[in-house]
Amino acid sequence: MSKDKDWYEDRISFLEKENMRTLIALDEINTFESYFTSINENTELADIYNVTCSHFRHFIDFSTVAFMDVKDDMTFSLEFCQGEDSREYIDSIVKENIENHSFAEAIIEKSCKIKRIKNDDRHLVLHCLYSKTKILGMFIGIHKENIIESTTTVAPLLSVLLRKTGHFLSLLKKYRRIHSEVRELQKEVESKNFALDDALHKASFLEMARKQMLANISHEFRTPLNAIIGLLDLMKESENLTSLHRDYISTASSSASIIISLIDDLLFYVKLKSSPKLLNPRPGSLPEVLLTTLQQFEAEAQNKNIEIKLSYDQELNQFLTFDSNLLNLIIHKLTSNAVKFTDEGSVCLKANVLDDGPDRLKVRFEVIDNGIGLNVENLEFLCQPFTQEDTSTTRRFEGLGIGLALASLAIETLGGGLKVESQPGQGATFMFDLLLSKTSLN
Question: Of all helices (H) and strands (E), which one includes residue 82?
Answer without folding.
Answer: strand 76-83
